[in-house]
Amino acid sequence: MAHRETFYEVMRQHGITRRSFLKFCSLTAAGLGMGPEFAMKIAHALETKPRTPVIWLHGLECTCCTESFIRSGHPLASDVILSMISLDYDDTLMAAAGHQAEELLEQTIEKYDGNYILAVEGNPPLNEDGMYCIQGGQPFVEKLRHMADHCKAIIAWGSCASWGCVQAARPNPTRATPVHKVIRNKPIVKVPGCPPIAEVMTGVITYMIAFDALPELDRQGRPKMFYSQRLHDKCYRRPHFDAGQFVERFDDEGARKGYCLYKVGCKGPTTYNACSTLEWNDGLSWPVKSGHGCLGCAEDDFWDKGSFYSAVTNMKVMGSAEADADKVGKVLAGAAAIGVAAHAAASVVSHMSDKSRKEVRHD
Ligand code: SF4
Ligand code: SF4
């Protein structure tokens, strides 16, 4: 039986040194929120497991996911990953084109049937039998179904593949449809965002190829390691939200003081993504840090949820749905006061119980 190369062997062939390889493993472990022992597990897996091929398809989309991916904050990460995937098929990044490129797909199926990861950027339009996206003379939806039939798992890159995004916005004339509504018999990991953060993409794909398993997913199919918290939960402007201090206009005093952007439309309270923790461009900044609210690009249907500059009105605060931004401000100012009082009361109780515990010990 022919020897199947390990990832490590492929990386070495691409000129990546052992030192760079180990650094990549450490960066990936840190990006996944894991400790140094996990870096060694990644290294061991990549050194010993046969390489899993990745096929990367592009449907109806703008290519921003690929643009984000190849601009990973750690050039090392994109170099390493690209050395793994460019050997197979990516109709944006690879050198081959036309019939020669399409033949690579059949060769991959022949060689790795049931054993490759299918990464999908964009989505298939279903109207007019898929005629709104034709590749190699056939509707993209047919290519997607064909390649999905033979893969082991699918990564739906970005909000287009995960939810539909702008091309599926009302009235959706092409019937652009997210991947999970077309392919129902394969495990699918959704990595939403418009685009997703580069380090999230490299983290997810490395986890899957290193451990030959899906990362733990939430009930919407997103990796919990990157999508388990709202932006709002880790936002550095959160103290202003809690204190009821809001920007009312982009040029007002509150904007200059860095107050919360909720009233000018920030969707951080209802958006699950890693922007407020990982940030963008190698941790340089993110929209809220640049003075603009989150648009909620990682959430289903974000394009059809009303103006980007209107405040979220269905946010649960203290167990009740808020009607408007002013009410949020008042409730939160009140809640902050109650919180301070509750904290003071709790401290007294804790102090008292500490005191009584000591007294018990002294008895
Ligand atoms: S509403 Fe937006 S700006 Fe305000 S705390 Fe939440 S995420 Fe930050
Ligand atoms: S801040 Fe919001 S709109 Fe901007 S990239 Fe993150 S999730 Fe998307």
- In total, how many domains does the architecture comprise? 2
Order of helices and strands: HHHEHHEHEEEHEHEHHHHHEEH
Q: Strand share of the residues?
A: 5-15%
Specify the number of helices.
14
**In which order are the strands of the major sheet placed?**
2-1-3-6-7
CATH H-level homologous superfamily name of the largest domain: NADH:ubiquinone oxidoreductase-like, 20kDa subunit
Reported by name, the CATH topology of the largest domain is Rossmann fold
- Rg is 24 Å
From the N-terminal CA to the C-terminal CA, the straight-line distance is: 77 Å
If you had to describe this structure to a student in words, what would you say it looks like?
It is a single chain. By secondary structure, the chain is α/β, with parallel strands linked by helices. The protein folds into two domains: 7-226, Rossmann fold (3-Layer(aba) Sandwich), CATH 3.40.50.700; 231-332, Irregular (Cytochrome-c3 Hydrogenase, Chain A, domain 2). It is 42% helix and 8% strand. It has 14 helices and nine strands. It has helices spanning 7-13, 18-31, 36-48, 64-70, 75-85, 98-112, 140-149, 158-162, 198-211, 224-227, 238-242, 253-256, 275-278, 325-362; strands at 54-58, 89-90, 117-121, 134-135, 138-139, 153-157, 188-191, 316-317, 320-321. It has a five-stranded parallel sheet, with helices on both faces. A hairpin with a 2-residue loop joins strand 4 (134-135) and strand 5 (138-139). Helix 4 crosses helix 9 (198-211). The protein is globular. Residues 317-326 and 331-363 have low confidence and may be disordered. One iron/sulfur cluster (SF4) binds at residues 193, 271, 273, 275, 286-287, 294-298.
